Amino acid sequence: MELTMELNNAPAVAVAETTAIDALDKTLLNMMQKNFPLTKTPFKDIAEDLGFTEEEVLGRVQKLKDAGYIRRIGAVLDTKTLSYISCLCAVSVPGEFIQTVAEEINRCENVTHNYQRNNELNLWFTITTKTQKEMDKILKRWEKKMGITIYRFPGLKTYKRKVRFLMKEQEGQS
Question: Which residues of 146-166 are buried (b: 16+ CB within 10 A; e: fewer)?
Answer without folding.
Answer: eebebeeeeeeeeeeeeeeee
